[in-house]
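Hi team,

As requested, here is the filled-out complex form for the 4'-deoxy-4'-aminopyridoxal-5'-phosphate run. I kept the field names the same as last time so the parser does not choke. Let me know if anything looks off before we queue the next batch.

— J.
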Amino acid sequence: VTDDPGLVRALARRKASFGAASVLFYDRPIRMARAEGAWMYDAEDRPYLDLYNNVPCIGHSHPAVAEAIARQAGVLNTNTRYLVDIVHDYAERLLSEFPGDLSNVVLTCTGSESNDLALRMAEAMTGRRGVIVTEFAYHGNSASTTAISPGSRPDRSVPDHIRTVPPPEAFRSGDADPGATFAGAVRAAIADLEAAGHGISCLVVDTIFSSDGVYCAPPGLIAAAVAAVQDAGGLFIADEVQPGFGRTGTGMWGYKMHAVRPDMVTMGKPMGNGFPMSGIVARPDIVDRFSAQGSGYFNTFGGNPLAAAAGLAVLETIHGEGLMENARAMGEHLRAGLRGLQGEGSIIGDVRGAGLFIGVEISVPGTREPDAAAASALINGLRSRGVMVGATGPYGNVLKIRPPLCFTASDAAFFLSATEEVAGSLGKAA
Ligand code: PMP
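And here is what came back:
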């Protein structure tokens, strides 16, 4: 990077201020300056198509959110201990996206806070502590959510009251019924938690298995596992931080693909299109039980009027601009285009996902062996062609494609042609 004095200076400032805990993307990090729609621009105004970031779901710098925040900031911003109409407007608007039994909302600031509170509520409701999560799950950065995030630890260890199960994976295993296998593993974990004296409090699932490698097929994939937990008196917490707010194209929430009824739904990331806000939607009897054991829940910034303004603008835009339909159509278009790049000698082993949440398994050509080195080479090659994309899964070989939902056919063409070029150069000649 020594050829760019601006970059050298920025890196030095970063290191001096943020120290060792700071994490950056790419060997040659990007100095980002501005963004609009699905595109971001660096300090030299070089454009990058953003297929990585699922936070700006309605598009980067969307004027509806910018204006709503600015307007509300000039009027009132305070905590939720007062009665403020716009906060109630948002709560009602958000709850209208859920079935009738999920009729209470608690607003927080991050997905981690939402999952942390959901764990506490599940324990209050069931009187039990045992939690089941998938082997490579990520659910947050607080103490209790780090405990249910084995994917964030090199040894994937979990505390004594937590059990992990493999995700419902079908490509590498060749499993003809991954939902049944998943349910079997969950049943065994329930029995094990009961035998250990913890009992089953809840199953927490990211409904598109983002960190585990992106799995959502066939429809109803997790229904039997969820039924096993609920039949045993445990709760099902749908973590919608990644797939929520229309991204899957099949409805507002990822759990809709699975024909299940969550007891609680946690959400965050795209909720404010970048304004930090999150929440839990839950059955009122759960919120009642939790509150009866303490003094309710207070969060200084959670559900503030600025967040409500941003959140309302996001929901109005998703519906007003037909973004869920666009996610479905563009997702199908992208998956078809990516499948067109498969074939003899190709590193693209599998293409899966729903709407604009796509996983592309990068494999050793002609095998189902994960190829993390090829995935990394592809990501860096795409970056140098102005396309940003990340990787996920335990082997780091699954491309994670999650562009803003305003993604267009010409964006898709740009991405597919860059991918054809880079993936083609990494594959083996047929
Ligand atoms: N759940 C899932 C599925 C996530 O992907 C994340 C963030 N990557 C979180 C929870 C935590 O959200 P936050 O970073 O806002 O605390």
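Two things worth flagging: The chain has two domains: 31-58+322-426, 63-320. The first helix runs from residue 5 to 18.

Thanks,
J.
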